[in-house]
Amino acid sequence: MVRVDQAGEYGATRIYAGQLAVLGGRHPVAREIARMAAQEERHQAHFDAMLVARGVRPTLLAPMWRVAGFALGAATALIGPEAAMACTAAVETEIDRHYEDQRTALGDSDPPLGDAIEEFQAEEVEHRAAAIAAGAERAPAYPLLSTAIRLGCRIAIGLSQRI
């Protein structure tokens, strides 16, 4: 669980980095993206520390997630701010589902991990709400874009759990 959660948070930081590289400070949504990115960086730092403390090997796919995350963020931002927010909404929908599955599987067996997941899940849900409020659903081809990104997230989660 720690490996895949660290990989997911790393991917999120890369998505936001790609979005900010394109949008910079030119668009009002950039401030919101920067705020969410700072939270994701905190999440990643927490899971980085857990990897070390628990002796868990990080995913071998990190170099791929570095490039893929940045590319996804940049590509959606190039489409427009609403598409960048659609990306956030889609990713956070899958992360919410993933974290909920983990919390169910953990039960009370690992309070430090369960507490972190619960805290971070609440922030991910807030990110999704902020993205929708910022126009995610107005993005071009929103249903298709959202479905494709969500599928990509599920694939990334599955691969990071194993590799």
Please count the helical segments: 6
- Please tell me what the overall shape is: globular
Q: Structural class from helices and strands? A: mainly alpha
Largest sheet: none
The average pLDDT score comes to: 94
Ranges where pLDDT stays below 50 over 5 or more residues in a row are: none
Cα(first) to Cα(last) distance is 12 Å
Strand content: under 5%
User: What percentage of residues falls in helices of 4 or more residues?
Assistant: over 70%
Q: Give the beta-strand count.
A: 0
- Rg over alpha carbons: 15 Å
Write down the secondary-structure element order. HHHHHH
Q: How would you explain this protein's 3D organization?
A:
It is built from six helices and no strands. It has helices at residues 2-23, 29-54, 62-79, 81-106, 111-133, 142-162. It is globular.
What's this entry about, in short?
By secondary structure, the chain is mainly α. 83% of the residues lie in helices and 0% in strands. It has helices spanning 2-23, 29-54, 62-79, 81-106, 111-133, 142-162.
Question: What are its keywords?
Answer:
mainly alpha, 163 residues
List the helices and strands and how they pair.
Layout: H1 2-23, H2 29-54, H3 62-79, H4 81-106, H5 111-133, H6 142-162
Helix pairs in contact: 1-2, 1-3, 1-4, 1-6, 2-5, 3-4, 4-5, 4-6
